[in-house]
Amino acid sequence: MYCLYILKCSDDSLYTWITNNLEKRLKMHNWEIPGGAKYTRARLPVELVYSEEAWDRSEATKRELEIKKLSRQKKLELITKKQ
Question: How far apart are CA 6 and CA 60, in angstroms?
Answer without folding.
Answer: 13
